[in-house]
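During the no-cost extension, the postdoctoral fellow (Dr. R.K.) reprocessed legacy sequence entries with the updated structure-token encoder. One reprocessed record is reproduced below for audit purposes.
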Amino acid sequence: MLIHVARAGVIIGKHEASEVLSLFASGELKPTDHYWHEGMDGWGLLPEYLKRAKVAVSSVQEKPATPSWMFPPKHKASQYGEEPASIKQRDLIASFGITLPHYITKFDASRWIDLLMVNDEALKLKRELEVKSLMERQEKLWADGYWADGFRTRSGYLRAEKDSLMDAGEQFVTDARIEISELKGAGKWTEAKEKKLMTKALKEQESLFDEARVHQHRRVGYWRWIIRLSRSSGGLYEKLLDNGTSEGYRDGKEDEEGFGPTEWSLLEKLVQEAKSFKGEPELVLIWDALNELDRGSKTWDDDDPGLLLRRIAKGK
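Re-encoded structure tokens follow.
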């Protein structure tokens, strides 16, 4: 049986049932995608298919022996000395299902991560754990009335995507510096090699930062859309709702699988809050308010979605 998958109203693929989980685990298919197969009356959210078809990842079975990649590499000295591993490094290693030692140096953690990222068995386990965690989290979020992607607003989703891109960009430069350190330690360093490594890393970083800025611009567009909805009625209001669907600001389906009562309630609340504005704020004001709130909290979009509107109203 072929599973048809759509994103933002456009069919993006047709897959065998056995392929869906691996594509979901790899990130190619997303929680906000919809599915349909022969015999269905309409489209449904993809995670619902995974749940009903019982293909959500089960608990990882114990293995007869602990694989070698689960143990840290033998300690090596570094020019960084005994500086402890960063929180990001520890979190990344833990995502492979590994219980970290009480103490590990930043240099050793970097070497360990390099080994993990090229080990097929380790990467497979990491994907399984991520899907399992995602499914558990989504079930809880659905019960609490959140969107399928785990956010109350599209602003929250775009913020998380932006932060992920920024982190990945920083990691490129960090990895290059560590590689340069290793070259120096092995007596293989040259100025030309360092320049080549840093130039490549900074180019990759800038590319990711550009993508992050695009996501931030879309967040600005989302809040401007909310504000414009508050100043419209009748046919214009319906047109703006349709525009919001095409931009991905809302799902566009008015049933339990899409734009349901919880989302309608939140949208109406935000629109009412935006009505307090005397005029439409400049885009730069929305941009600055987003950056200010992001510096204070990683989850404000979900914890208190109307906070940005109140902040802008206060600053006008």
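The chain is about 60% helix and 5% strand. The two ends are 56 Å apart (CA to CA). The remaining legacy entries will be reprocessed before the final report is submitted.
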